[in-house]
Write a structure and sequence with these properties.
- By secondary structure, this protein is of the alpha/beta class.
- The protein folds into 2 domains: 174 residues, Alpha-Beta Complex (Spore Coat Polysaccharide Biosynthesis Protein SpsA, Chain A), CATH 3.90.550; 63 residues, no CATH class.
- It contains 8 helices and 12 strands.
- Helix 6 packs antiparallel against helix 7.
- The strands form 3 sheets. The protein has an 8-stranded mixed beta sheet, sandwiched between helices. Strands 7-12 form a two-stranded antiparallel ribbon.
């Protein structure tokens, strides 16, 4: 039985995505890893070139940069599924990973060949590896699905729909780490409003505030996490946590990173 890994990626360096960590996680479990890359304009492709594995296949294609509600992400994910040759697909967004201690458990669960989908719990890290959003309504989603043309990515690619049953809850946490570098967070908020959520009023307002922070950061001004949170995401309560940190994320602990290399 073959397991395909899948992720989609565009301008991962500018956005502060932990996509190298995502790909390394997929490589631990999967027999092939498909990356749908959207012609990045930063140095994402150079970073991808550092991964030396014949299991990785990068497919470059144009994305619709004037989409809305994040629906382009599901569209690209569905296109990516067509390139997967495995019996199962383990899908991670380009800023997600699981703890290394859970990899063997997950692979065994997939290879049992008993389920059309496998559910995961999500922890949304914010502003630092040791901080998280207290809770979100969408705390669970499927990230492993049987490779069937009746299963498809839905919404903004957070979950899958279709013939996802029978399914099982893995009890495994997906760490969402795409919001741990404040400088990249504000750039991502600006870009989301400009591209993938172009008609969303709330995104436009948040991007306007993020642009102000970006100017202050570029001037070298020190900005607190509390100010960022209360201005950009007042609907999220940010708390410290004591969850086990994946080894791949440990080098990022405490990095209030303004600049990217």
């Amino acid at each position: 039985m073959k397991i395909s890994g899948l992720t989609i990626l565009r301008n991962g360096m500018d956005s502060g995505y932990t996509f190298i960590e995502t790909i390394k996680t997929l490589l631990t479990i999967c027999d092939e890893v498909i990356i749908i890359e959207g012609y990045s304009t930063d140095n994402t492709m150079e970073a991808l070139a550092t991964i030396k594995s014949d299991k990785v296949k990068i497919i470059r294609q144009e994305w619709n940069l004037q989409s809305n509600a994040g629906l382009e992400f599901a569209k690209i994910t569905n296109e990516g599924m067509k390139h997967c040759s495995g019996d199962y697909i383990f899908y991670l967004q380009a800023d997600e990973l699981i703890h290394e201690d859970d990899c063997n458990k997950l692979r065994d669960m997939i290879l049992s060949n008993q389920h059309n989908s496998i559910m995961f719990s999500f922890v949304h890290l914010r502003y630092d590896v040791l901080m998280r959003v207290k809770e979100l309504p969408e705390n669970k989603a499927r990230r492993v699905v049987r490779n069937l043309n009746t299963i498809y990515s839905s919404g903004d690619a957070f979950d899958f729909a279709g013939t996802v049953n029978p399914g099982i809850d893995s009890g495994i946490i997906v760490y969402h780490a795409g919001y741990i570098f404040p400088y990249n967070i504000v750039k991502k908020m600006i870009n989301h409003a400009k591209y993938f959520y172009v008609q969303e009023t709330t995104y436009k307002h948040r991007a306007s505030e993020a642009a102000k922070f970006l100017k202050r950061m570029d001037l070298g001004e020190s900005i607190s996490i509390t100010e960022l949170n209360q201005t950009l995401e007042p609907y999220y309560q940010i708390i410290e946590h004591n969850l086990p940190i994946p080894a791949l994320l440990q080098p990022h602990i405490g990095k209030f990173r303004y600049l990217i290399s």
